[in-house]
Amino acid sequence: MNTDIEKVKVLIIGSGPAGYTAAIYAARAGLNPILYTGGQPGGQLTITTDVENYPGYPNGIMGPEMMEDFRKQAERFGTKVRYGLVTKVDFNSTPHKVIVDEQVEIHAETVLISTGASAKWLGLESEERLNGRGVSACAVCDGFFFKGQDVAIVGAGDTACEEASYLANICSKVYMIVRKDEMRASQIMQKRVMNNPKIEILWNTETQEILGEDEVTGARLINNVTKDVSEIKVSGFFVAIGHEPNTGIFREFINMDESGYIKTIPGSTKTNVEGVFACGDAQDHIYRQAVTAAGTGCMAALDAERYLASLE
Ligand SMILES: Cc1cc2nc3c(=O)[nH]c(=O)nc-3n(C[C@H](O)[C@H](O)[C@H](O)COP(=O)(O)OP(=O)(O)OC[C@H]3O[C@@H](n4cnc5c(N)ncnc54)[C@H](O)[C@@H]3O)c2cc1C
């Protein structure tokens, strides 16, 4: 362990839209923020291609390019962006202790958690290969690219039902692939998909392979009961089997829901620990969009600034 302890006013953990937006606001407020990027500099948008729904880009923009813009804007006002993974925290002490890469110790008056969430995947080779080429974990983000086309969605929870209904508004047909003969979703959500003539539910069905060389052309499915193998033709394949918030290292100190999403005080980004704020997908299982993540990143910086002012 490096014995030099660095003292900072604002430490931002994560470099997605939430973290960089928090950095822009904190830096412009003169708080000299330090931001650690984690293992995915730029966050989730670096694994997608076109982003068409972020305001300010009338012609759309590639995800990685957009996140480069975010980084440059944060650095322009003095944010120190560092590559490193926060491996441990101790929020019982004030200031809060944060350990980076198991060796650097930082004492931070405020910590802004913007570590995002990761989509869960089926684990198929074809799914990984075709990710971003027709395979997606976000219907709201990518559904529009399949306007008027046939698509499939895997999942049986409320989110899967909601995304299937969303896709049915845009696409010509939606196959909903459900592993069991029942769904986990609430009755009202189930009814909504079952009553939608554009959605065909394939019960007791699992995906063996997503088909296509450079882009999705279909999927090979197996019926768990009859063991019959069949193929569907689709150009989009959506996976909606849940997300995992990247919040494990904070569990001991921060209140979370049963899935690991950080609980914030409504209308703010405050957590149960004074001086620790959470923004972006790490605390949002509902909207999960770049613009909402950026919005709460702004809130976190303003909340931190006000908290620091209250200590003076
Ligand atoms: C394929 C795909 C396409 C998408 N398309 C769109 C779209 O078109 N429009 C849209 O609005 N949204 C889209 N989204 C959703 C959008 O990407 C997310 O809502 C948004 O990125 C969330 O931002 P965030 O800052 O909360 O977290 P993330 O972007 O998830 O970033 C989290 C950051 O935290 C860092 N991190 C994690 N753990 C640690 C740690 N221990 N220490 C340090 N850093 C850490 C990671 O390295 C990463 O930089 C898409 C998502 C995916 C997966």
From TrEMBL:
Quaternary state and interactors? Homodimer.
Q: Which domain of life is it from?
A: Bacteria
Regarding protein family, the annotation reads:
Belongs to the class-II pyridine nucleotide-disulfide oxidoreductase family.
Give the E.C. number(s): 1.8.1.9
The name on file for this protein is Thioredoxin reductase
* All copies of domain FAD/NAD(P)-binding, residue ranges: 9-297
Q: Which InterPro entries match?
A: FAD/NAD-bd_sf, FAD/NAD-binding_dom, Ferredoxin-NADP_redctase_2, Thioredox_Rdtase
- Report the catalytic activity: [thioredoxin]-dithiol + NADP(+) = [thioredoxin]-disulfide + NADPH + H(+)
